[in-house]
Amino acid sequence: MAEPRPVLEMTGIVKEFPGVRALSGVDFRLFPGEIHALLGENGAGKSTLIKVLTGVHTLDGGSITLSGRPVRFAGPAQAQQAGISTVYQEVNLCPNLSVAENIFIGREPTRFGRIDWKRLRREAAGLVDRLGLDIDVTAPLSSYPLAVQQLVAIVRSVGTADGEGAGTKVLVLDEPTSSLDRGEVLELFALMRRLRDEGVAILFVSHFLDQIYEVCDRMTVLRNGTLVGEHMVRDLDQVGLVQLMIGKALGQLDELHEHQLHADVGEPLLEAEGVGRAGGIEPFDLEIKKGEVIGLAGLLGSGRTELARLLFGADQPDSGKVTVGGKEVAMSAPNDAIGAGVAFCSENRKTEGLIPDLTVRENIILALQAARGWTRPIPTAQRDELVAKYIAALDIRPANPEARVGQLSGGNQQKVLLARWLITRPQLLILDEPTRGIDIGAKAEIQKLVVSLSEEGMAVLYIAAELEEVLRLSHTIGVLRDRKLVARIANGPEITPTRILETIASGEHQ
Amino acid sequence: MSTTTARPKAADSHPTSKAARVLADRRLPVMVTAALFLVMYAAGLSRYQNYGFGEAQVFLNLFIDNSYLLVAAVGATFVILSGGIDLSVGSVIGFTTMFTAWLVERQGLPLVLVIPLALGVGALGGFLMGYVIHNFEIQPFIVTLAGLFLYRGLCLVISKESIAIGDASVSSMAQTQVSLGGAFLSIGAIVALVVLAAAFYVLHYTRFGRRVYAVGGNEQSALLMGLPQGGTKISVYTVSGFCSALAGLLFTLYIQSGDPLHATGMELDAIAAVVIGGTLLTGGSGFVIGTLFGVLVLGLIKSLIQFEGTLSSWWTKIATGVLLCAFILIQRAMTARRKT
Ligand SMILES: Nc1ncnc2c1ncn2[C@@H]1O[C@H](COP(=O)(O)OP(=O)(O)OP(=O)(O)O)[C@@H](O)[C@H]1O
Ligand SMILES: [Mg+2]
Which keywords, in A-to-Z order, does the entry hold (chain A) (predicted)? Predict the structure, then answer.
């Protein structure tokens, strides 16, 4: 079978940032009517390759041809006009505009030169509906959780891809599924397959290898900014793929699979009694013991994050009481929770966590310094040692405490956020999607870290979209459904993801 | 992981109480300002009803006496919505008065030529400032501050003294009254209202207008969404330059002279009007109608103080300052709420 001609060809791509060679001579090709996975560890250069393609970053070397013609885009606007529509890694939309506008801005339907708002809303509602989302498109984007925003970004790009003869040839999706749950992932995949069958070439980045095997045809693997290889998905199994990605066989994952949950859960640490908030989550009781890992399972919007925010005082509960170590805590602001030894690592690193212009060191030290009070600086030597320790433990790359966080790859930013809270050694650590956007090797590292922290007596409340992840780590699983804590299940060999899903679906545990 | 369950309804993932919804409504600040205006007006009516405060003309004078401020504030609204700031407004107005007076009086050019020339100079200046802000990535604060000094300096280059305008066409234009039942509006007031309506249309019904909001909401995102964010920024300063020059022309008409010190500090009045009108200084949220109410509130403070008679005009500044603080606090409370 003769291969058709690639629609997009990138040859010898070089991109240097001050001090970092992000891409050195990468070749990449994309064929019409295929879904092509771009794979690699955090910081391998995937997002950079995409940004070089669409003109966000200027090229330092190499060439790009689109449909046989050499191109070089001055910015995303030009790339879009040439038929490349892109969803970048972080949600990049305007929070102040409505969902409908975010989908259409730049190509609003007009009548006699005037924006046709009625049509815009109608068409936006239609597009959103096709992805199986049921939301009010006139509400501002900022009123929706991250996952919905991610879907809206996808709807925007797909809207360009098949709406009004826009002639999209290439659709680029940089980690579009990182905060989606299974149902939405399936909807997205159905849509991707439909577009592929219409001849669109799709570039797909994800750290979920199962997803790659589920939907992709071909894959390109990068490591440290160099091309490792291009393979058909059917020719390479997961073990081989992981080896290509990290450059060595992966033993640690298996280690974790066999890992036994330690049994010595201590005395009660935090007790929530009838804590709830109207519009957020129904009153719930929850007891967390020292050294216990509690995983929260539930669909998107089931109230996982809301529950966590109440325990941290980020939202104020309007009923019930929280006691930590026997003492009642007011929980009227995060400071109360921090004072009681609770730390919260939020899912939204972009808006609620990191300060991009500060260095890795400054970002890591922030929470610890805040906890000590600003008048008692941490001694320099101790500080540098702590920072170095966590950079190594989480394998933050580049391992340079002076690098600006904004310049790190998405996954490495997530690790910095995690380090910030780990370093405060809280009694209860709340992790909301801590492994979002993190590569498979680092994910295993983080999970191992959670296990060892709990062995040392730290309680952990763990939220993750992936049920396997929750099951692997948790002593107890809290199941949420429709903003209600419907079940608390003690983990054991008989508990499987399917059992949990049944509980989520039926709302009760047999 | 292969079983799927009923899809969650994201819509009810944020069911908000009625109070929260009202607080999150972006129109709230405008309504607050409008209500404030009505309350102040009603207070004026009850206190000074025997002094003719209730006359229609007193109300219309608000528009006549503040027409130039309204036009300047409309321009500033564009800039602030886009997340920028323009400090050159007052100087451009001052410069335009000098430039117009000089052309009309000293050079004897007819008004039909002078008006487009003055507007062109203002727009060009705005364009250049926008160009520098965008292409050299310099803070708008710095660039327009330079503009502020530059234009003031240019006034003095033209002449150190003020130039009175005796031209017949100017004075006849200034005295034209457009009758509105028992009362009247000046040409300046009508121009200002037309500018306001045009700005409303542009901001809400054109792609350019929506881009202004997008850039103000998140500039980096606007870029990645493929919007011509640079062009938008440059255009916004061009609009502001144009509006400032137009405000300068209206000011010339109102005061019938050019003076190097005219409209000193008026950029701050314009910014105050925009903020009191509910537009967020961080950009991306606000309405040009709010700016109208902002200007009217400021104007009403002035006329209330005039009616009071015994109060020094400095009270205008004090009242403006207090209002500004109050409104910035309201904005703060609103954005804090929106985040959660
Ligand atoms: N603006 C920038 N300035 C400096 N260095 C940068 C910048 N953007 C990226 N880098 C560096 O380039 C390298 C590649 O980053 P990139 O974001 O492409 O990784 P990635 O493969 O997308 O990783 P992830 O899976 O974590 O998203 C990293 O070492 C990163 O620190
Ligand atoms: Mg990336």
Answer: ATP-binding, Nucleotide-binding, Repeat, Sugar transport, Transport
